[in-house]
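Page 47, continued from p. 46.
Same chain as before, 366 aa.
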Amino acid sequence: MEDTKITLEGDGMRHFGFAYLTNFAFFLAISLGALIFIPIMYVTKASWHIVMRRLVEVTAAVLPLMALLAIPVIVFAGKIYGWADPEVAASHALAHKLGYLNTNAFVIRLVIYFVIWTGYSWFYWKTSAKQDETGDLSLTGRLENFSGFGIMICALSIAGASMDLLMSLDPIWFSTMFGVYYWAGGFVSFFAVMTLFTLGLQRTGRLTGIISAEHLHDYGKAMFAFTFFWGYIAFSQYMLYWYGNIPEETVWFLVRSENGWGWVGLVTLFCTFMLPFAGLVSRFTKRQRPLLAFWAVWIIVAQWINLYWVVMPEFSESFVIGPMEILGFFGVGGIWLAGIVRLAMGHKLVPVKDPRLPASLRFENP
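Result:
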């Protein structure tokens, strides 16, 4: 009886660790999507998004809070990651990876990632807020010049973090496309969240007359485009490995196609790609606020299911879901959202001194 109790407690703690990782990685991906979006807009000198940019900036600026939320992942690393188990680490298959896959290196890399992300996100946010106060137009040029290098550094760090947090759950398996796969899911979720933020604020009377149906139409186009992009990356990763038929590569997909996980994968295929792709293809849908809100919520839920399908089979060979995953979503998500609201308080919701603001206010879709 005592041995059984110890086993159940151990499984419960492992379950918590995996459920927490799923939700942490999900909300982290959304903020990282915001972080990449900002420099892309500066590099392209786009104007359509200016009226929405402050919401994007605070969503990225919450990354220091996400660094604190990464602490439980580190604490539970021994229960989550096979390479952190001395018996697994001693296997011949991992001998040549131990210089990379060890707890100290894992923590050091996470610290480096969050230092990079915090530095970039707060630089963009604070510089933009400073322009609101001073009206210094040269700050826009400074941010534009800084953004090309910023995209490269942020993209590489996001790819590295996805490898450490998610891909290394199976220390034998590897994919050169996994970083893009993780980022693409986070990016489409980011656009969905921005859509809901905007619609929610307008229901309270904020940003009314500033953010128009034209701007929301572009968010709809972005959700549609990156739904397709995510589907392309997901299919390419699956097709290339399955066609190659190398056991250490296909095993990752095999585990996720058996014992109930195959049904989750099928739900992911339809809910994350096929249905939102069909639903958002129409111009009419992208210009109707209730329909746009529906598909934004749909995409968020579907991308969470996709990440759940990526993480949880490493915990249990058979399909499992319970209150821990759902409570983790609202727990981590609630803290993340509260951090965004706290950062937004006391700041203008629109960058009023940005030189491209007039063009953004006049923006119309062709």
